[in-house]
Amino acid sequence: RSSGSLRGRPAAMEAREPLRDVRGALRAVLARLREGEPSEGREPFELPRFWDALGQTFQVTSQEATKLSLAFSRPPLPSAENCRKLSEDVQNAILAVATVYYWLPKGQGTTLRKMVRDATTEVVEGMIQLTDTILNAPVESLSQEQLISTGGVWEACEQVSNLPRGEYNQAAVVSALAASLGVVKDAVEEMEHALVEGQDPYGDIMEDEELGFRGNRDTYWSEADRQLLSSCMGLMKASKACLKKVLAAVKAHGKADSPEHIAQLDDLADIANEISPSVDELALSMYPPVNPLAVRLNEASLMNFLPFCRTSHVCPPSEEGWVQFLTGAVDHNMNKVKNFTQGQL
Q: Which family does the entry's similarity section mention (predicted)?
């Protein structure tokens, strides 16, 4: 019996050979998605048709992942012929997903395109992971990894329903701004919590004596640190207020009816994407020992955002009041930070 099972193993490996080929093809699709740009497209572009097609291709991919996983979940394993058919169906499903992504012209806006491309690459990565898992698994059994990989493809395919589908690029920019605002809100709350008077910011992680003595100056804020920190908090709160106001302005006034308006919306999303990591870094540089250079480097992104908002179509005269107010608040706190850090740089 043992020699029979040994003879069966190369046959099983051979049956899975088409999967190796399909894995190579999927990797090529992924590489092209990561670096390639969609074409401008010759036909008139229709957004509802695009969303329908994208949803359908994601659904088909999810079904193909299920079929492939079931075929390799228990003996008898599929014949070489069946494996070839399964592999072809998987490859065709993924090529259809990529093709529909390439329908989306540049003129629809880079923010929307980036979100659709991220969702598409996630589906392709999930399918590569699943084929990898099947190729590396023991022939006889359904592994935990295979279950996880199959679920990963389903999850990636379901993301299509979360993509912002409002008016062209506007909905995508609203989604990007909301994500940045969420990051900044979390950073502000965390810092406010740490700054509670008398609280040791490392109280929860410095219990172990091996990590450092409780008297170590580097684990506490000095009085001078606290003065600097109140200006840093002012900047973080201004970032939060600014993102909140711009998000509301894009919802109220954002238009995607011309290349210029679409480009302005994209620029707002790009600058907002720089603000959230800067605020995160600013928060990190505020922990003792405070790093004045890092504080100065990470406060600058707001300076680009507010002037840009003022010249964008999302800020008609009715919005100018808050732009002026926040510009003043940022200048005031920036000057205080400069004065506090001047001698320390």
A: Belongs to the CCNDBP1 family.
Distance CA 110, CA 26 (A): 24
Q: How far is CA 55 from CA 47, 69, 160, in A?
A: 12, 21, 6
Assess if residue 298 is contained within a domain.
yes
User: Does residue 256 lie in a domain region?
Assistant: yes
Residues 37/103, Cβ–Cβ less than 8 Å: no
Query: Residue 148: which domain range?
Result: 10-160
When divided into structural domains, the chain yields a total of 2
